[in-house]
C-alpha cells in the first residue's frame, strides 16, 4: 500500500452541492486523508473505512456535470470520471464518507473545478460554498508555455498533439495528469468495451483531460494554493497573501 498523506488544512465540512443550495456535513478533521486511484479495484490504496473518490468533474464537451438533474443539453452533460464513472478516474482522494451529504451511491463528496467562474461553481457546489483543489501542480512537469500568449500555464487535454502543433503527448510527460495513456477515455467511448469505439467521444474525452489545478471537491472553506505555473511568468502577483498557505500533496 502506497499512501500519500495530504498536507492540506481544510474547514472540515463537505458540501453536497447545488441540489440543496448549500448542504454542508461536518466530518472529522483530516478528511480526505490520502491520494488514491479510483480505477484500482476496490480502491485498494485507501484504509478500510474510506472510499477512493474521484476529484475530477470533467464532463463531455466541456459542460457542467449533471450530478443533480441528469440533463444532457447545452449546459449539462455526462461526467466522464466521477459520479457513476468514478472507477474511470486515475485521480482521487480517500474519503471517510460517514456524515458526508452526498448525491452519489458511493457516498463521495461532489467533485468540482477550482478554475470555474462563480456561476459555474455555484451551479454545482451551491451558493456560499467553494471549490478546493486537492493536489498541487508539478511546476516542472505540469506547465506549458502557451505560444499564443507566451506565458506559462497548466497543461490540459486540448494541448495534446504531436509537435509542432501539440504542446504535449500526455502519457508520463506530466505528474498529475488524468488518464495518462487514454485507457479510460477508450472505456468511456466504448461503454466499458461493450460497444464499438465512438472516436468522436474518445477524442472529446481527450480534450477534457486535466492536471491537478482543475480538480477538487466542494467545501465550505479551503487553503489558498498559488498557481505554480503562473508563478513562472514575469510580473506574477501572488494571490495568497501572507505566505501562509499550506503545502499540498503530490503523488
Short description:
This protein is 10% helix and 16% strand.
Low-pLDDT windows of residues: 1-13, 20-29, 243-251
Return the average pLDDT rounded to an integer: 85
Question: Going across the major beta sheet, what is the strand order?
Answer: 1-4-8-5
If helices are DSSP runs of H or I spanning 4 or more residues, what is the number of helices? Answer: 3
Order of secondary-structure elements: EEEEEEEEEHEEEHHE
The end-to-end distance, rounded to whole angstroms, is 13 Å
Output the structural class: mainly beta
Strand segment tally: 13
Instruction: Report on the biggest sheet.
Output: 4 strands, antiparallel
Shape: globular
Notable traits:
single chain; 251 residues; mainly beta; three-stranded antiparallel β-sheet; 13 strands; globular; disordered C terminus
What secondary-structure arrangement, pairings included, does this model have?
Elements (H helix, E strand, L loop, with lengths): L3 E2 L7 E3 L8 E3 L7 E3 L14 E4 L9 E2 L10 E2 L14 E4 L15 E2 L5 H8 L4 E4 L9 E4 L4 E4 L28 H7 L9 H9 L8 E4 L32
Parallel strand pairs: 6-7
Antiparallel strand pairs: 1-4, 2-3, 4-8, 5-8, 9-13, 10-13, 11-12
Helix pairs in contact: 2-3
Amino acid at each position: 500500500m502506497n499512501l500519500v498523506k495530504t498536507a492540506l488544512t481544510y474547514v472540515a465540512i463537505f458540501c453536497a452541492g447545488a441540489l440543496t443550495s448549500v448542504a454542508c456535513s461536518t466530518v472529522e478533521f483530516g478528511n480526505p486523508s490520502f491520494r488514491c486511484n479510483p480505477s484500482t479495484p476496490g480502491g485498494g490504496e485507501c484504509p478500510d473505512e474510506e472510499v477512493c473518490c474521484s476529484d475530477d468533474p470533467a464532463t463531455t464537451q466541456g459542460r457542467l456535470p449533471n450530478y443533480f438533474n441528469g440533463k444532457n443539453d447545452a449546459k449539462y452533460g455526462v461526467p466522464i470520471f466521477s459520479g457513476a464513472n468514478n472507477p474511470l478516474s486515475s485521480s482521487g482522494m480517500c474519503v471517510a464518507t460517514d456524515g458526508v451529504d452526498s448525491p452519489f451511491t458511493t457516498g463521495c463528496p461532489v467533485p468540482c473545478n477550482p478554475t470555474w467562474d462563480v456561476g459555474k461553481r455555484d451551479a454545482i457546489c451551491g451558493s456560499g460554498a467553494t471549490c478546493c483543489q486537492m493536489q498541487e501542480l508539478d511546476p516542472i512537469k505540469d506547465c506549458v508555455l502557451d505560444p499564443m500568449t507566451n506565458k506559462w500555464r497548466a497543461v490540459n487535454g486540448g494541448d495534446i498533439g504531436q509537435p509542432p502543433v501539440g504542446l504535449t503527448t500526455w502519457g508520463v510527460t506530466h505528474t498529475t495528469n488524468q488518464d495518462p495513456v487514454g485507457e479510460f477515455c477508450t472505456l468511456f467511448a466504448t461503454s466499458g468495451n461493450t460497444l464499438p469505439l465512438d472516436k468522436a467521444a474518445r477524442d472529446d474525452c481527450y480534450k477534457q483531460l486535466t492536471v491537478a489545478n482543475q480538480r477538487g471537491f466542494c467545501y465550505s472553506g479551503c487553503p489558498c494554493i498559488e498557481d505554480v505555473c503562473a508563478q513562472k511568468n514575469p510580473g506574477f502577483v501572488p494571490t495568497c497573501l501572507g505566505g501562509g498557505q499550506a503545502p499540498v500533496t503530490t503523488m
